[in-house]
Amino acid sequence: MESTPRARQHRMVASDPAGLAVALHTRAYGDVGPPVVILHGLLGSHRNWRSIAQSLASDRRVFAVDLRNHGQSPHSERMDYPHLTSDIAALIHDLELGRVQLMGHSLGGKVAMCVALADPELVESLVVVDIAPVPYPDRNAPILQALRALPLAELNDRSSADRKLAEAISEPQLRQFLLTNLVPTADGFYWQANLDALARAGAVLSSFPDFGSEAAFPGPALFLAGSESPYRVTDHRTRIGELFPDFSLRTIDGAGHWPHIDQPNEFLATVRTFLGKC
């Protein structure tokens, strides 16, 4: 039976003495079972994970989250891993979830790893989708530049936005994903994501905090890599093992950077098997 989602703007019960956390928008699925928290990638939102969340919610409570500066969560000038990590830790505490099974894709995968390394008592197990705990080149700067340059006042509809964006971004599937951030109103269009803050944070988000081996996460961790992805997670086994010694690595054939979209059945089966053992 398909679970009925419930939207929630979480509010922190306890004060955050460091002033780091913001209240994140969350969509909840399922009423029973262990809690699973899902974190999307850059320029994504909880909506990208609806079908996966609904499938997992047959025997779990699933919480799909909008990261700060994304989706329906608040905008903030502060966009770095300490703040992103604090947001998720505060959400877990506020919802009284205890230890969670934490899953993240790309940027969300880096945030999930940071939570597990910084606050391991919050994380029962970890699923990291097509990203490794290493610095990467800032591949997203041209994309953000193209989005910011889109002349919103000249758009008549989403099709006109797609045509104009095609001048800078040739891949139709990528454009459709990016344009999920474009929101129509009676007066035109606006970007739901905070493009300016994301662009300024590009170098920071492409990096990864320098955790030492003493911070290694002791719980089970599954790393999923797309066989066609440029992020080449399998090249970073050594660093993964240093920070996540109880890890397994699975490559999904025929998948790029979005294995959950490219090969959803294999992705879901692999994740279900892993979570069922944790």
* Tally of strands: 10
Q: Report Rg.
A: 18 Å
Envelope shape: globular
Q: Structural class, judged by helices and strands?
A: alpha/beta
Helix content: 25-40%
Instruction: Provide the succession of SSEs.
Output: EEEHEHEHEHHHEEHHEHEHH
List the SSEs and their pairings.
Blueprint: E1 6-9, E2 25-29, E3 35-39, H1 50-56, E4 61-65, H2 81-94, E5 100-105, H3 107-118, E6 123-129, H4 141-149, H5 158-165, H6 172-178, E7 182-185, E8 188-191, H7 195-200, H8 202-206, E9 221-226, H9 237-243, E10 247-252, H10 259-262, H11 264-277
Parallel strand pairs: 3-4, 3-5, 5-6, 6-9, 9-10
Antiparallel strand pairs: 1-2, 2-4, 7-8
Helix pairs in contact: 2-3
Describe the fold and architecture.
- There is one protein chain.
- The protein has 11 helices and 10 strands.
- It is of the alpha/beta class and 278 residues long.
- It has 2 domains: 6-136 and 207-277, Alpha/Beta hydrolase fold, catalytic domain (Rossmann fold, 3-Layer(aba) Sandwich); 141-200, no CATH class.
- The protein has an 8-stranded mixed sheet, sandwiched between helices. Strands 7-8 form a two-stranded antiparallel sheet.
- It starts with 5 loop residues before the first strand and ends with a helix.
Task: Throw out a few tags for this protein.
278 residues, 8-stranded mixed sheet, globular, alpha/beta, single chain, Rossmann fold, 2 domains
